[in-house]
Amino acid sequence: MSNAIKQGNKIVTGLVIGSVIGVTISLIDPATRKRTVQKFESIKDASTRFVQSYKDNPDEFKQDWKEKFNNSSDALRDIANDTQGLYKQIQSTVLERSKDLKEITEDFKQLYFQTKRQCKQITTKITTTKDQIIESSDLEEKPQLPAETGDREVMKNNGTVLTT
């Protein structure tokens, strides 16, 4: 237990010494020193006015602070009500939109599977038709049309020999 107390004392001592060294080094700069002095004077003046106003008229001081507190609490209550209203509005909007999103997702899912099924049917029909075309062209002889005189002339010009 005494080691913990000694350790705690070392930390506090180190913090105090470090703070003193830090403040001392920062006050070496004249501008920092001047701002620090001005700030302390400002704090001193404000606290002196605060204490003096309480001493001069404690009832008025209390009443003034009570009014400030009530105004602040009214403003905070309004802010809380506005924030709560905004939260409820956002919550209901998100809830409605999430329902819409669920419906859209379900519709899209159905459309996807329906399209997939139809594509499969179309692919099957294309394959079947292709197979039928190939089978019919392999099994049957290709019909040849009788050549006419005009066709012979064209074929002669192309260098094709026509037999009849």
What this model shows, in words?
The chain is built from 4 helices and no strands. It is mainly alpha-helical. It starts with a helix and ends in a 6-residue tail after the last helix.
Briefly summarize what is shown:
The protein is 88% helix and 0% strand. By secondary structure, the chain is an all-alpha fold. The longest helix is centred in the middle third of the chain and has 82 residues, at 58-139.
How would you describe this structure in keywords?
164 residues; mainly alpha; 4 helices; 0% strand; elongated
> Helix coverage percent of residues?
over 70%
Write the H/E string, N to C: HHHH
Radius of gyration over alpha carbons?
Answer: 48 Å
What form results from the Cα inertia axes? Answer: elongated
Please provide the count of β strands.
0
Q: What is the strand content?
A: under 5%
Figure out the total of helices: 4
List the SSEs and their pairings.
Layout lengths: L1 H25 L3 H27 L1 H82 L9 H10 L6
Helix pairs in contact: 2-3
